[in-house]
Amino acid sequence: MSYLIIDKVTKKFDGTVVLNEISLAVERGELVTLLGPSGCGKSTLLRCIAGLNEVDGGRILLNDRDITYLAPRKRGVGMVFQSYALFPNMTVYENIAFGLKMQGLKGDRIAARVREMIDLVGLAGKEGSYPRELSGGQQQRVALARSMIVEPDVLLLDEPFNALDAKIRKTLQMELKNIQKKSGMTMIFVTHDQEEALTISDRIFVINEGRVAQSGKPLEIYSQPANEFVARFIGNFNVLKGEEFEQLVGEPLFPGKSLAIRPEVIKLSLNGENGKGHNGSWRIKGKVVGVFLKGNILRYRVRSKDSILDVDVLNNSMDCSINYDTWVDLVIPKDEVKVLNL
Ligand SMILES: Nc1ncnc2c1ncn2[C@@H]1O[C@H](COP(=O)(O)OP(=O)(O)O)[C@@H](O)[C@H]1O
Ligand SMILES: [Mg+2]
């Protein structure tokens, strides 16, 4: 049996269904992500697991216990929020030690555990600092240590890095993954950021309107979207109707289907140079209607007949980018065209 089981959990607010018989299972020691757009019910599900929201139906099992109706403090669930919610009048050391003190542990045993946690989250030397003397990233490390030190059965993290700038955020993503692996703690991480989910997760649950739209390892979710919602939400797929695609390539192939094509699998070239279309691919012509610099990639938006396709190429800054209104050739490998369920 799985370590944490969400079994057909329903939650309504004022008659509006926010969690719609949602089911998912997490194994011990996993770091899973709930990924979905704002308002899809991610925080509500975390709050149901923590006991901060009462469910309207279904069951929640954790570590062989039915916790559906237990008081929050009896569940063995820890939580980290976007706002660090540290005690401003306590030092880093006191903030982290707080939970153990509440449990009635004695000073020397507390000291050993706090030291361990401080090393784990990389805060050595900051023991005597107050929260106001720390950066946002450091404060979030304190919040993480404070939640982990009491060793909850599962730690819930609700968009914990949202308030941090991009660079710190990326660093903390990597560190969280390391900390999680070292500690073996089961964690459920919530984010609306696809890249963040793909970076840190063992598995991802994509949530849409209070249900799981798809679950799987990051690479599966990224390369094999099960349905149109996931394809649109993850990885900037081009999503086309079958009829639209048939018009593009001139073959009746996918009536009534939706198709997804990743921007980086389409090869773009000028005037038929490099790469002829062959049996394994389609070749079409189009006109550049947009150019977007996205750091290490350049995204071209290309109009072909009535369709728009995004095409990503590695940004080799030695090359000049192709200008608006330029005619280009696109080669689309046949085995990269994914047929979606609705
Ligand atoms: N306490 C509440 N009372 C009424 N509606 C709520 C409450 N909490 C959340 N909602 C609604 O439930 C939906 C899901 O919210 P939430 O779980 O916070 O989404 P997410 O975390 O995925 O952005 C939203 O439409 C939100 O307005
Ligand atoms: Mg939320």
Automatic annotation (TrEMBL):
PROSITE patterns, sorted: ABC_TRANSPORTER_1, ABC_TRANSPORTER_2
Keywords from the named record: ATP-binding, Nucleotide-binding, Transport
ATP-binding recorded as keyword: yes
Any one GO BP annotation for this protein: quaternary ammonium group transport
Domain of life: Bacteria
Annotated Pfam families: ABC_tran (PF00005)
InterPro entries: AAA+_ATPase, ABC_SmlMolc_Importer, ABC_transporter-like_ATP-bd, ABC_transporter-like_CS, Mo/tungstate-bd_C_term_dom, P-loop_NTPase
An example Gene Ontology molecular-function term: ATP hydrolysis activity
Keyword Transcription regulation: no
Domain ABC transporter: 4-234
SUPFAM superfamilies in UniProt: MOP-like, P-loop containing nucleoside triphosphate hydrolases
Gene3D superfamilies: 2.40.50.100, P-loop containing nucleotide triphosphate hydrolases
Transmembrane segments: none
Protein name from the UniProt record: ABC-type spermidine/putrescine transport system, ATPase component
Organism from which the protein derives: Acetomicrobium mobile (strain ATCC BAA-54 / DSM 13181 / JCM 12221 / NGA)
Upper lineage: Bacteria, Thermotogati, Synergistota, Synergistia, Synergistales
